[in-house]
Design brief:
The chain has helices at 4-16, 19-26, 30-44, 61-89, 99-102, 105-116, 129-137, 191-200, 214-222, 266-288, and strands at residues 49-52, 55-59, 91-97, 120-126, 143-147, 155-168, 179-184, 205-211, 228-231, 239-241, 253-260. It is α/β, with parallel strands linked by helices and 289 residues long. Strands 3, 4, 5, 6, 9, 10 and 11 form a seven-stranded mixed sheet that branches. The longest helix has 29 residues, at 61-89.
């Protein structure tokens, strides 16, 4: 590629058609401008200017053609430099969370965070809670909001969230019917809470539908085919808490926590505080109901 410094000199000379004036504008000497032009002509193997004693300087046909390409190259270079500068300047948080939380309380947290920190870019990585902890340890994410994984350095808060039965609007079930349930295929979910609660009241539940992904579970519930169990804070429309269905026992609670990488970061402080407030408010609202 032709030298960028030489191309800049070429564009000025092409505009002024005067080496002395170009040298003034570039804050250099005329001989340096001449060397730039000669370097370009050698690289391109053509003359860019017609110049001689007693004659006014003119662009050759090759010189006129090269103007557009030189300008485009200079513009791309400026754009690339500016993009890199902006990328370096962006404050960024890589947040890990579960799909269920990302579709509910995290939405409210992002909205509140953006109101205070418009210049901060948040990247969300959705995964299982145990996998998120491994990613945090590996430095792949900066923070994680998820099911509690135990006390450890970097845990900002832990809050016990009430679990609730969740259904679609219009879902009906009488106290004598077995309870159809939808959960994840691998069993590492909240089905234990559902079956233990139903056993306590001697009611039968069964796995009506399974999915490898939380979105699939959500689809079965929204279709009115089954109930599932979720932390109350993660229930958002069009899902609803199955408060009107007779005979469903209480489920207990589940701890949610916010973990972060070591070191001070004021942006993570703000996000952690917002999520803590939202989960605390949810818990307080549940107690007042």
């Amino acid at each position: 590629m032709p030298d960028l410094n030489a191309m800049k000199s070429f564009l000025i000379v092409a505009d002024t058609l005067n080496f002395s004036r170009a040298a003034e504008l570039r804050n250099t000497v005329q001989s340096a401008i001449s060397l730039h032009i000669k370097k370009l002509e050698d690289e391109l193997d053509c003359k860019l200017f017609e110049r001689g004693r007693g004659q006014s300087m003119q662009l050759t046909s090759e010189g006129r053609a090269f103007i557009a390409y030189a300008q485009r190259i200079m513009d791309l270079n400026s754009e690339a430099v500016e993009t890199i500068r902006q990328t370096k300047a962006v404050r960024r948080i890589k947040l890990g969370t579960t799909v269920t939380l990302a579709m509910s309380v995290v939405v409210d947290a992002l909205r509140a965070f953006a109101d205070k920190n418009e210049s901060v870019q948040i990247q969300i990585d959705c995964d299982r809670s145990d996998a998120l902890l491994a990613k945090l340890d590996a430095g792949e994410i900066d923070a994680a909001f998820m099911i509690d994984q135990g006390k450890r350095t970097g845990r900002d808060f832990v809050e016990n969230m009430p679990l609730v039965w969740v259904c679609a609007d219009g879902f009906e079930l009488n106290r004598y019917q077995d309870v159809p349930l939808a959960f994840l295929m691998d069993g590492r979910d909240l089905r234990r809470f559902a079956f233990e609660a139903l056993d306590r009241v001697q009611r039968t539940g069964y796995l009506a539908h399974l999915s490898s992904h939380p979105i699939g579970v959500r689809s079965f519930v929204l279709a009115g085919l089954a109930l599932t169990v979720m932390p109350k804070v993660s229930v958002s429309e069009p899902l609803k808490i199955a408060a009107d269905i007779d005979g469903l026992p209480p489920l207990g609670s589940l701890a949610l926590s916010f973990y972060r990488k070591p070191g001070f970061n004021s942006d993570i402080d703000v996000l952690s505080s917002i999520l803590h407030n939202l989960t605390t408010q949810s818990h307080q609202n549940k107690r007042s109901q």
